[in-house]
User: Fold these one by one.
Assistant:
Number 1:
Amino acid sequence: MGLFTRQVTLGARCVGWPEAEVVALNQARIAGLNEDGIRALVTRLESLRQERGGDTPLTVNTT
């Protein structure tokens, strides 16, 4: 695992990352977590994503 979670494919030429994962990683970095700690967090976040159903993008309701 790297220092960030895997991207999620949203379309043919579009990728993104779940907001909760970005927030968690940013908070960990601000808190001063070292690279080993960040990698452990990435592993946990990836596991949670798999439990939620993998890389299926979230549907956003704009109405």
Note: Residues 59-63 have pLDDT under 50 and may be disordered.
Number 2:
Amino acid sequence: MCPHQPPCPPPDAPDRDAARTLVRHPEQGWSLLCNGVVVFEDTGELLPDGEAIAPQRPIARSATSAA
């Protein structure tokens, strides 16, 4: 249970990334949030129930020449 006020969003909420960070390991590329979600620097997530959420980064568009 989250001790923060207001409480952090649960891991199944759409705004789960708004939970407070408990542990950061930038050298390994991940952080543990108060709600048990592990977030990765590539924006992927691992939920407490083991479900993996794919990275949500925008797709970079490369310039192509029409020559």
Note: Residues 17-53 form one domain.
Number 3:
Amino acid sequence: MKTRAIMDSHYKICCKNEGMTILEVVIALSLSTFVLAGMLQIMTGTQQTQRLESSITEIQENGRYAVEALSRSLRYRGYLGCLLPRGDHVDAINLAATSFPYTDISRTSLRGFEVSSSGVWGPDPGTNAYNSDMVALKNGANGNPTPRPGSDVVSVQYASPTELTLDSDMVSPDSDIITSDTAINLNQNDVLLVHTCDVGDIFRVSNSPETSPPFTISHKNTHNSSDDLSDLYLSDNRTRIREFRTETYYVADAGRETPTGDKVYALFRLDMSGAVQELVEGVEYLQVMYGEELSTGNIRYVSADESTLDMRRVVSIQLGLLLSSTSESLNEIDYETYELPGETIGYSTTISHLGGKYFRKVFSSTVQLRNKIVVL
């Protein structure tokens, strides 16, 4: 009897643990689904947060760099060492270089252009002979990317703050210049400014300078209007040699797409040789307002296409850049409107951004120009 009781007890326990009822299975599956859904939501949220944080970091770095690059160039507007740019002409500087697109460097030290949403430039660069490089940019010369409609173009011209000195005196106007300074990488066809505080010459290097000092700098008529410079420059503390630069900034199509197939725009820089360099990707628009000092001493801010604007009287510049992430990182499409100097950019405004789920931010700065042009 005892043995039978034990067997019956074992049978009952065994039978009770043979499996789960349908209700228990349904409950277990429901709980599992709920837990998995929660985990999936957490993972998705984490990935979304990571993408957004990555976009914010990307834009912060790109925006700071773009503003700094523009500001640094603009602050040097018209810098010629201790020479002073004159008003309607620069009679202290001899423009010897051939194929030199600028006949009045007091007027070309700062240039600006509004490009409308339909691609019309204001002012029209074709109306002035000293804007031939801007005409080439407008027409996409050398296969360079053309400025984006609705975004501004700003160009600045100056002599490099980095300087060289002469090893020996020039004995005649056509004498080669000899220097042992290595601060500037010298190449044939470079445009240089040699000057004192009273006179200067802008010329092209006609030879290929040596790869190690001392360096010979020639200025023959193969690259200049004459073999001769306007003065006999001496190896004293008064004479300096500087690289002469033109830097033009604008936004254009970078020629590539985001992972979702939208165009990527970037900030570009065009130099005097016609070479274009992409500086910062993700820049959708550049807007510029020019602070002109009036005869009353007041400053007015106007766009480049203002017909009465005299660029020689501009003492400050307001910059605005709209940057976008290069991959989508928001949960919803961006319908926001952004305020840049002189322009409102929205999803459906005349000048509009791409929308999409891209993170965007405006970077702005007011740049004080150090080198005031003397207007006679």
Note: The first strand starts at residue 93 and ends at 95.
Number 4:
Amino acid sequence: MIGTLEVPAPDRKAAVAPRFVKWFADICIEDIPLVGGKNASLGEMYRELTRQGVKIPNGFAITAEAYRHFLREAKLDAKIRELLGGLDTTDIDNLRQRGSQVRQAILAADLPRDLEQEIISAYDTFRGTHLHPVDVAVRSSATAEDLPDASFAGQQETYLNVQGHLALLDTCKRCFASLFTDRAISYRVDKGFDHFKIALSIGVQRMVRADLGASGVMFTIDTETGFRDAVLINAAYGLGENVVQGTVNPDEYYVFKPTLKAGFKPILQKIVGTKEFKLVYDIGGGKMVKNVPVAPGDRTRFAISDDDILQLARWACLIEDHYSAKKGSRPRWTWNGRRTAAPENSSSSRRDPRLCNRASSSTSLKPTNSRGAALCSSPVAVLARRSRPVRCA
């Protein structure tokens, strides 16, 4: 059974339209200059694919103009230019010192009041009538991500299980500051990009409780052989960052696309991964998320059921068909341990995302944080019940 994650619709009759916030329903793939590559893909999927049954948690983008507004109002643009004036990226100490100074300057500055109010207002729309803060993912979306001649993906920060106004505003500033990590600064210099021609948008999206279920990435091609008629799914317990970053050995499932589209259930192969630990909410602790060991018995079981594998593969085909007319996509997926699941554009664990992105229109899906399946942040999908794991043959 597939569940949905109910989020109140934003008030489109407001007297004054927001300057710095755009909901996914108002974003399309052509909006990369305004909301970055990740948010543009999320908006495109939310607008075009939810009507086809692909489950994508709602969210909003804090636009690149919000970032520029922050720099102007806090007088940071001149400060950053001064700090980077004598930059030498071949001198590691010089790079580290100047990068740290830039990040500290951004973190020490106050967000403009009008920007704070728009972010808080949009976040409160998620809450509806609920008394407790809503858990959201806060993800960077650079306006230069995944360009034809450079890949900026993965250079900026992501924060999971962010709850409350203060935590949200703080993580937004940390995302802005992550545009100036040492790695990002050096990469832009090496590629000849002006630091001030690239801006940062932020995606804020409802979490799916994958920490109670499973998550992973999915590709509409076999990334090792280039075989185009297979969907490759990686899955592990918990939130999806461990799979995306390649820090766990996930399950692998292969599905044959031609007969799947003909109505059959063509799972070609299932390989159980070791899945030693999982990323979960740090409830009652000092962190937002933490890694915990997976029970030995669960490590030898598959993280998701055959029905879940086939549903994710169907969604992958829908996403591939949609994006093949525009550009490649690699969404993550998440399997909800409590509510639903969702897609999100991202990269696979042991595979180069740039290779997958350009070798074909690859697609990856990642489970979200509720019981069910759904598509999330860079696109994600949600599944609505915990299925009995299947043991290896």
Note: The longest helix spans residues 306-324.
